[in-house]
Design goal:
The complex is a heterooctamer, with 2 copies of chain A, 2 copies of chain B, 2 copies of chain C and 2 copies of chain D.
Chain A (H helix, E strand, L loop, with lengths): L9 E5 H11 L4 E4 L7 H9 L6 E4 L3 H13 L4 E5 L1 H6 L1 H9 L4 E7 L15 H7 L9 E2 L4 H18 L2 E7 H5 L1 E5 L25 E2 L8 H19 L3 E4 L6 E4 L2 H16 L4 E6 L1 E3 L3 H10 L2 E6 L5 H8 L6 E5 L7 H11 L5
Parallel strand pairs in A: 2-3, 2-4, 4-5, 5-7, 6-7, 11-12, 11-14, 14-15
Antiparallel strand pairs in A: 1-8, 6-13, 10-12
Helix pairs in contact in A: 1-2, 1-7, 3-5, 10-13, 11-12
Chain C lengths: L1 H10 L6 E4 L9 H5 L5 E7 L5 E5 L10 H5 L5 E4 L1
Antiparallel strand pairs in C: 1-4, 2-3
Chain D lengths: L11 E3 L18 H14 L6 E5 L7 H4 L3 E4 L5 H11 L4 E7 H7 L1 H9 L5 E6 L2 E2 L5 E2 L18 H4 L5 H6 L4 E8 L3 H19 L4 E7 L3 H4 L3 H15 L3 E5 L7
The complex binds thiamine diphosphate (TPP) (2 copies) and iron/sulfur cluster (4 copies).
The site of one iron/sulfur cluster (SF4) has 12 residues of chain D, from helix 9.
């Protein structure tokens, strides 16, 4: 992240609150939401802070209402955000599909919990499919960003607003209880906008211009096909321009871990330990889950002996790794649903793969 | 150098506050630090706990499988966390509420401190028991300096309770001196 | 008046009922303490495994067995005999 | 172009309202959606709101609102128009915001959204067209379907023991504190049309005066799905429908500061 | 085992209802959920329904209903208990079916489901616990939160201009034709507890007599999230809460065949 | 399909209605739903027929309510079905996740339409991701069956009920407007149950047994992890035992089409034409989209020169094909969002791939 | 009576108004036919491009220009002058 | 042998009924057949159309890019479907409502039949126009026998209108004989 000249100081902050700080820094002045653990810090923070800076916090009667408040405010040309977790995000799927179809930007945060159903609040990456393949109907896509630190909760939120506006599409932050609830020092780097602020498509009353509308219905002839090709073009551009990832100690690695978010964070400890023992292991950490770093995964896979996919689920991103590279025989998986693999477990697996005795 | 500590007790004993204070102090001293609380189990009561990791390097996992230290403020927490504590790790227990004889391990560095009693008898309020325990832990582990803790107190104590800061300083000191005398 | 006499009678130190409070289950909410028309219940000093200073049957001699405490207790800690 | 004033009659006494786009509608013959659209457009004209309005279309036969009313329009998911309107109004309190919804949309899938918008006193106006059926999808039973009415999903007639009662939204919403205005109208006679216009005018006025949530329920025909000639459909509205759903004003707030 | 009749008092006048499982609850000290649970269990016992009941738990502090009430229980998604209960009752009309729901569950996310269950006259019983907040998630604003009340998401107090009014569900549901019984009770005094039992008994009776939908709204405390001592919370119920949410019976059907 | 001794006669029937016939044959007596095009024939048929045979038809106030009626009736141990399309299916995602988490069987039919959002009613396979990757939260799975004829609309519906009960999990029929609206003759083969009828887990009142419950919340310790491993075990068993597919003229093929549902149906015409010209082309048609015929796709891919994936979207099953086989370089894609590729287009593509001049 | 006279006057074959019906836009719903108090409008024989036998201004001589037909027409086919 | 036909007209002209009848007849004759209607565009009015494919083999696509025949009952449908009709294909137009001079192709086999007029004048009801057109198409294409059509009529005409079956038979026959005389 580029830093401005402004004096930057470190603050100890909760991941969930860093998202709020990032949103406010990026000019978001509208937040709607409905309570659900483990993301309640977000509405609570917003309800306290937004009114003080002329913004609007409104608690909706449900997540279905929430996503439609979002739709309305986005259609008004304003930056707007919501956050929820598993069940609430599921209830937003219809609305998200409408927003993608109507080309409306917004930032949706999923601080995911354990599922399926009511599940539990143990940390989990079980919502990968829902986020990355898009759980709503109709085959739209949206950028999905996976922060692994409080700093990234802040900075990727700002980025999410820019991506949303740039592509006129919802963008998602996919976190979990660990990055959401932990505190660590972060730097409140200034927001530098990468997109124009004007939204000529916004519905503001048709003074001085013909009326316009925002909609997803295309009934005549093959209008819906044409519309879909247009959307598809946007997705292609995202895939070309917006892939983000971190290469962590991949120099000379024979084993490459692929992991995101909390799983990647924990893996770093294990990699430190293994490197200290002389094991050549590193990690490719997708920061954008969509667009997925397909080329990068393929390149790494071709170089190393083993690709170890680590997830807090039973193997979802694993499919995207297989889709990215034909080196299927090098791929191994370490996963736990609804539980964080400990650094010890990952370290053990690395040692096993490196052929070290237990 | 990386160290970590799990702190646990009843909700309302101030566990999260001492975890926060320790983290702030570590940050103040330029260290890397992560603080992870047990977050709302969607209901009240029961236990509260948090994990603090402090290091000179970038921190990976904010949660640990086998912690290097535990500060245990009540009985149920001892049952829960004692088995995980690393061999040779530091164990501070609040002997006002935890029976020291329940510590069934001898491969750890145990400090039994009657935190509630000290808080009540010496400082006049049981509310300060966890500060006493933190003082003891920091004295043993030496992860941050006591002075930094004192400096950071205003950041965790709300304006409304400002006037109690000196009392909290005393609590930390009581814990420290108890640790120095009994370790 | 009649009623005064009746009231006088029931004040007499002759318990007509008896309660038992489950020490471990009590959460020391004090609802029974305030509910008991005779003030028989108090919060104790001993802390139970849940961490609460449980209520105890402080003045058995005044108990009428009216069961109001039991009806009130949200945690079903109190059993009553008459 | 039409010759104006031909034959010595110089004063044009009825023409298409300005805010009503000059295109053919897709509505069936005799469908009262067309009348409701006209009244809506006339009222927008009357208050000179065309350029400061944001409408919210629902899903139903009236989804093409944006093709007919010459204002900015957002399309809401089925039932969610009041929520979308909330999002618009919160972002732009100085714009006039209305929704236009059918009875499937408002009284079935969108029950929660309209109730909570009303309860919040959301300063928006709802035009609600109750034709006792799901028109767009081919005439299924709606929450407003009359007892005994046969529809494509109540082939043996609506039975209260199984399907419950036709729900009276104007009355229900009138019970909520945040509702400033709630009325039920029809458009089957010239007199009714006049009253309907008056109700819509009042509803608009409430929003302009920031009094809170306003709604006008239109009893409407759906000749196609009722399997009736338009004129018979109109008679049904005048008869059994207005008997069960009485026309009238159920709530009208008089003072702006309503607490 | 407890000694019975010790000290010469032979008659046990209060003990745990049979249908109430003998375990510790997770409720906070002084939370009235516990009292509502007791009354529910007592009423199940009274009608000898334990073995023919299917309960539906909601999402909220009372989600663990199945750990406490000794009957078959299904867990519904947040707000959907009346819909789940509908599915159960339609499949098994001869079983006794109830839901137990909080105010976030019933009056916010589940508004539509409860209204349509009532409107259909669904023959189920709803126990509704209104504590003016979302207990389980840490005390956020609910639709029933009082004006001015500070919660974790209304830190400056609920403002009717922004958040609307506390919604009165017992009254609202009473307006629907399908509702057989609707009452609001509290459990802050012995007399109130007696009345609450009576209301739950009546509600059960409605279902048993196939009269339709019945609901009992309990005004309840949430000392934890109100930041009050239990006794003060109880006083709040007796005071401002029952002032705004008046106790009483809002509807009581007398005849089974209600058309 | 095995045939009983009963006299079977052919009937001209609409695909949507064949689903109803299949459900009723399989003993389904409960249907709940909410209208949406292009599947309204299903609730309409059920509302007319179920009451006559002692069954229950109930129109819900929304799809959210629908899926929860379903949950309640399923929890009562009865066979129950719903149907919808895109937006309605999106609204069911939370409920589906709860059902998967609570291990409750039901059949959910998606006669999909064009998306995203309100989209249109042109035929589309844009809901593949939603169906196959499961759009709800928490990473559950469900069998997804893709009929390509009226006969299969009937028979796969019966199968769906058996799979649902066998695994105590929702099962989905993924159709589209073409197979839903078309009529063709079909044989009403008798239903032969492959699963036991008893459901001892059903909630029927606890007479004579301890109380039981159906739930998805697992809060204590690692209960949710244990629960997820259990679910995962079921999914593994599905993957081992339930894969279904059709090999169509693959004998000696150099080009293998992979397509499902309507796209497969249309491809058959193109394959007939191409075979008539001597082009060695065939098709592997997945009938179960989950579990996906991974091994079969891989085997075919290794044999042929080209694998041509055809979908009525911009490439969703394509990812599963890549996941199934490392032969990425043989894979080609022909897709159209929200539109049916004509036999002529597919034939043209086959010719091109076979190196025939246009 | 006055009113009768007045009514008598307006019945006189002196049209006081005039309407125009948009042939292509009309859907032949007949609402105007029934609405017109003077019975001026009828359904025609010619079918328009939409497939409807559009209404036409059958008795211009009786038109009062009251605009009731226009207010009634759901398809805004009628314009009125007076 | 595989053949197909697209039939199109105003809603209410009975397009779907004749498509169904043709399909039933084909099935009755042991052929493979698919029938695909234009399904609810979520609103009324406008046009109705359907596609029928008849074959001796398993049928792939139930919808065709370039049909081998079109039965066109109104003006808008001619505009929509004429361009797709295959070279040499059969085109039956209802000249009562479709201007034959609008047929701007000469590579098709055109039959102009005044179906509405025949229905009204000869049979007494315009409702029968589409039956007339079907009779003409079947006469030209010979996909099924007229007798099978007659036999199948009771399956597409509801009990209530049973008495009109003979009239429908006549309509089919009128169409057939017109086609034989004018083709
Ligand atoms: C979530 C969802 N469910 C169902 C539909 C299908 N649908 C479209 S319009 C409609 C109902 C229309 O009825 P109504 O609201 O009464 O309006 P009308 O067409 O009668 O004017 C339905 C159910 C949809 N588009 N989205
Ligand atoms: C779809 C969905 N949204 C949000 C939640 C989070 N949640 C759990 S309980 C609850 C509200 C509880 O409040 P209430 O219904 O008033 O019951 P109480 O806990 O106060 O008894 C919420 C919002 C959820 N589980 N599912
Ligand atoms: S009411 Fe019950 S829980 Fe509360 S103090 Fe009394 S005995 Fe304890
Ligand atoms: S279907 Fe009914 S509501 Fe829809 S346009 Fe036609 S008449 Fe109007
Ligand atoms: S949080 Fe509130 S409602 Fe929940 S158990 Fe505690 S006191 Fe009761
Ligand atoms: S009311 Fe309008 S659409 Fe209907 S017949 Fe008269 S002019 Fe035509």
């Amino acid at each position: 992240m580029s830093r401005g000249a402004a004096v930057i100081h470190r603050t100890l902050m909760k991941g969930n609150e860093a998202i709020c700080a990032g949103a406010i820094a990026a000019g978001c002045r509208f937040y709607y939401g409905y309570p659900i653990t483990p993301q309640n810090d977000i509405p609570e923070y917003m309800s306290a802070h937004l009114p003080r800076i002329g913004g609007t916090f409104l608690q909706a009667e449900s997540e279905v209402a929430t996503i439609n408040f979002i739709l309305g405010t986005s259609a008004s040309g304003r930056r707007v955000m919501t956050s929820s977790s598993g069940p609430g995000i599921s209830l937003m799927q219809e609305g998200l599909s409408y927003m993608a179809g109507s080309e409306l930007p917004a930032v949706v945060v999923n601080i995911s919990r354990s599922g399926p159903g009511l599940g539990g609040i143990a940390p989990s990456q079980g919502d990968y499919f829902q986020a990355v393949k898009c759980g709503g109907h109709g085959g739209y896509r949206m950028p999905v960003l996976a922060p692994h630190s409080v700093q990234e909760m802040y900075s990727l939120t700002m980025l999410a607003f820019d991506l949303a506006d740039k592509y006129r599409n919802p963008a998602m932050i996919l976190g979990d209880a660990i990055v959401g609830q932990m505190k660590e020092p972060y730097e409140q780097t200034p927001y530098v906008s990468s997109v124009p602020a004007e939204k000529p498509w916004a519905l503001t009353g048709c003074a001085g211009r013909p009326r316009q509308h925002l909609k997803s219905l295309y009934l005549k002839d093959n209008a819906i096909e044409v519309h879909n090709w247009k959307l598809h073009g946007k997705y292609r551009r995202m895939e070309e321009d917006e892939v983000r990832f971190e290469n962590y100690r991949l120099d000379g690695a024979r084993i490459a871990i692929v992991a995101f978010g909390t799983a990647a964070r924990v893996s770093k400890t294990a990699i430190q330990w293994a490197r200290d023992e002389g094991i050549a292991v590193g990690m490719l950490r997708p920061i954008t889950l969509y667009p997925f770093p397909e080329t990068q995964v393929d390149e790494v896979a071709r170089k190393v002996d083993v690709v170890l996919v680590i997830e807090m689920n039973t193997g979802q991103m694993l499919q995207d790794v297989k889709m990215s590279t034909p080196c299927h025989d090098k791929i191994r998986f370490l996963g736990k649903p609804c539980a964080m693999p400990t650094p010890e477990e990952i370290h053990g697996e690395i040692r096993r793969l490196a052929g070290k005795a237990e | 150098m990386t160290t970590d500590v799990v702190m646990a007790g009843f909700g309302g004993q101030g566990i999260l506050m001492i975890g926060n204070l320790l983290s702030l102090a570590a940050m103040e001293e330029g260290k890397h630090v992560t603080y992870f609380p047990a977050y709302g189990v969607e209901m009240r009561g029961g236990t509260a706990n948090c994990t603090v990791v402090i290091s000179d390097e970038e921190i990976g996992s904010p949660v640990v499988g086998s912690p290097k230290a535990c500060v245990i403020m009540n009985g149920p927490s001892l049952e829960k966390y004692l088995p995980d504590l690393r061999r040779g790790g530091i164990l501070v227990i609040n002997s006002s509420l935890v029976e020291p004889s329940n510590v069934d391990r001898d491969d750890v560095r145990l400090l039994s401190i009657p935190a509630n009693d000290i808080a009540r008898q010496v400082l006049g309020s049981q509310q300060l028991a966890s500060m006493v325990a933190l003082g003891a832990y920091v004295a043993l582990a030496g992860v941050v300096s006591m002075d930094t803790l004192f400096e950071c107190l205003p950041k965790v104590i709300s304006r409304k309770y400002e006037k109690f800061i000196p009392l909290n300083v005393n609590a930390l000191k009581e814990g420290e001196s108890f640790a120095r005398n009994h370790a | 008046m009649q009623s005064n006499q009746a009231a006088g009678k029931s004040i007499a130190k002759e318990p007509t009922g008896r309660i038992e409070i489950d020490f471990e289950r009590c959460k020391a909410c004090e609802l029974c303490v305030f509910a008991c028309p005779k003030g028989c219940i108090e919060i104790g000093a001993k802390i139970n495994r849940q961490g609460y200073a449980a209520a105890f049957f402080a003045r058995p001699e005044d108990c009428t067995g009216c069961a109001i405490c039991a009806e009130t207790c949200p945690d079903v800690c109190i059993e009553v005999w008459r | 172009m039409k010759e104006k004033g031909k034959g010595g009659f110089g004063k044009n006494v009825y023409r298409r309202p300005e805010s009503l786009v000059d295109v053919k509608t897709h509505f069936c013959p005799g469908c009262h959606h067309g009348i409701a659209h006209k009244i809506l457009a006339e009222t927008i004209d009357r208050f000179c709101l065309r350029e400061k309005t944001v409408g919210v279309a629902c899903v139903g036969c009236s989804v093409f609102l944006y093709d007919y009313i010459d204002v900015d329009v957002a399309e809401a998911p089925h039932g969610r128009a009041p929520a979308v309107a909330t999002g618009v109004k919160r972002a732009q309190p100085d714009r006039f915001v209305f929704t236009y919804q059918g009875d499937g949309d408002l009284a079935a899938i969108g029950t929660s959204e309209v109730i909570h918008a009303a309860n919040r006193g959301e300063n928006i106006t709802v035009i609600f067209v109750n034709n006792t059926t799901y028109g767009m999808t081919g005439g299924q039973m709606a929450p407003t379907t009359m007892l005994g009415q046969k529809t494509s999903t109540s082939p043996y007639g609506r039975d209260f023991r199984k399907d419950g009662y036709p729900i009276k939204m104007a009355e229900l919403l009138a019970t909520l504190e945040g509702t400033a205005y709630s009325a039920r109208v029809a458009t089957s006679t010239p007199a009714q049309i006049r009253k309907a216009k008056e109700a819509v005018r009042k509803a608009f006025d409430m929003q302009i005066k920031e009094m809170g949530f306003s709604i006008v329920e239109f009893l409407s025909t759906c000749p196609t799905n009722w399997g009736m000639k338009p004129i018979d459909a109109q008679k049904r509205v005048l008869g059994e429908m207005s008997e069960y759903f009485p026309l009238g004003v159920y709530k009208e707030r008089k003072q702006a500061d309503f607490l």
